[in-house]
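Notebook, p. 212. Picked up where the previous page left off. The plan for this session was modest: take the two constructs that came back from the sequencing core last week, fold each one, and keep the raw output in the notebook itself so nobody has to go hunting through shared drives later. Recording the first one now, exactly as returned: residue sequence, then the structure token string.
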Amino acid sequence: MSETQASPVAAQAAAPTPVAVTIAAADGFPLRAFVWRHRPCMDALPPRPVVIVNAATSVRCRYYFRFAQWLHENGCDVVVYDYRGIGESRPPDLAQLSASWLDWGERDFEAVLRHVRRTCVGQPIDVVAHSIGGFVIGLAPSNACIRRVFTVGAQYAHWRDYAPRHRLAMLWKWHAVMPLLSALCGYFPARRLGWMEDTPRGVALSWSRSAARFEDSYQRAPIARTQQERDALVRRFAGLRAQLLAFSASDDAFGTVPAIERLLRYFVHSDVTHWRVTPQEIGVDSIGHFAFFHSRFEKRLWPLALHWLRFGALDTDRPGRIASIRSAGATSPHRAACAPCAQCAEPNP
């Protein structure tokens, strides 16, 4: 693995300027990343954490710049990056790129982890992960090196978990239109539709075929894995030992309680807490799947993430409630979800 440093990207006046770097994955694919770093301080006790930000499916890493800058201003070093095929990691001919969600985890996120371990020796590694970014954590062979994880709406888009009110529309959009256009074009031309960034076909198929058990999504070409390989993927999730706080919003049609819990059950060796917030609890009309990273939530939601990364504990002064909590080893990834209880019950978004 190697990396080459480029000139700093433009940033707001008087704000810390991230440095653009290229990180080569194990297969040689160049990933574009941006790094916010403080000057080395040998006397820093405890050591300054490094936070890697994992993006949602087909969302450019620049979407997270404001949040990354805020983390940097609050004492963290930060790395954001584009998965292969997305944003500044897009090749000239996207239709020729073979990449699925699995590649984003076991190749791309793994490469970033290795880069951080090599360039930030002795610093604890934390991860903030949005949507599929929480899923790809489990796929990285080196995920045992992560100290703490904070996820936002993290799940892997099994259609039965979509909010009932929106399920049919989402089924049509993501499980009918997306794979059809991907087959016709060789990739999913999402930008023309105004939906998200253009997306590799394998990623579109990972999403549109997403099964109740994620490993069952990879039984057919062109994203097929053997039974032994699929079993190994599940075991890899067990490698994560990090403390994990999963944030979800009650009006997120992707991040419903069943969807969040479905993913969390794979992290069998992590202490896991699921924190659920309604828009009304923070005095706004909506949060949804994306707004957590908007700067208007700098004072109301972002401190929840920072407190967790710093202390591995909930900030009890923040709004919300615990939807679930369990210690490492307390559950199996394939155990059926519990029946709804009073604490988890809420109106469907």
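Okay, moving on. Second construct, recorded in the same format:
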Amino acid sequence: MASPILKLSLALQAAFNDPEVLIFTKGVAFKKLESLMHAVMSKASNESHLYGLLFHCLSTICIASEFLAQDQDNSKPVPQLECYNQADYRVTAEGTTQSIRIPDYTVFVVDSQLRPAFTVEVKPLAFKDPGVHDWRLNPDSRTDALVHFGNTISQLREQAQYVFATYPHLEEHYAFLQVGYFFSVLLFKKENEKKVCDLETESEHHTPNRRPRRYSVDNPDADLEPTIYLEENILPRNLLPDIICANQPILMGKPVNSYNEVFRYVLSIVLKKHGFVLQNSWLSLPEAGYVLPTFGEERKTWEKCLLKGYSATIASHMDHRKQERVVDQQLTPEDRKDVDYVGPPTTPTPSHRTLRNRSTTAASSSSTRGGRGRRTGN
């Protein structure tokens, strides 16, 4: 009597030879991912090398997903998930002027039209230590990835704004960031983003146009320290996007043997919002009852990065206003090393040298007139 393992092997062999079936096993999937990991890490500073790894992951997700809507109208195509690279989001302003933002990937819900399920922005993660070329072993990689996370906030935010403008019916948008081996997910809300933009616009209206500074090169206030984090009353924290998770490895094991359970859980949340579930596989949800970790102190660091990214515009306005007040309070510099202030044309104030030259000229003229008088009298 054949053993269960032998029966399974025979069944797989039969399926492999069946032209109606395409077999893609867990073992095959993770062998491909390990090979892709090595290829990417061999050129870690090159962003384009990451595209192959991410496209494999996203395509597998799309293939393994299924739409769950009840009473589907057979006259309409069943929604599917598909991964598009370099999909553009366009905003038209003031006539025919178009502005475009292009995330590296967008996973769309596809039926009779396209609707973005989530976007993915990719950033390279180079190795500082030339002796360790594996993100899984390099202790600095995760710290460096967090720096990229903070530096990319403004770009993710801008992309979300363009998604909302291109698809006005969307109220929320999930944005994934992949920095080398580490992923992050932010949930943007259209109404909150609009309120932050309004605060920035109001701040700009209260900021004078920049003008050349009138600082002495020896002036210690010439480079004022900018405001970095805004207070709650200036930028309410509830307007910031939700950090679902940040700076987590997408794959586990060396060699790769699974997707991170955090990634699988977050992915299930995002897909469920659009009516999809994943086939029961190595991409499925973690065990029943799984709860996303709180991440404790780590989350505080993420939130600090997010706040810094969102504070940048208004903080720069505040810093400029502070600099303008310093300029207005300063006296006209007299040091020869001072930098001249080029402002609107005014009646020039004569310099000491000019006054001295005039005085000398007047005395000379008077002496000459007197001499002529004496000569005339003779």
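Notes on construct two before I forget. The chain has a mean pLDDT of 82.
Flagging for discussion at group meeting.
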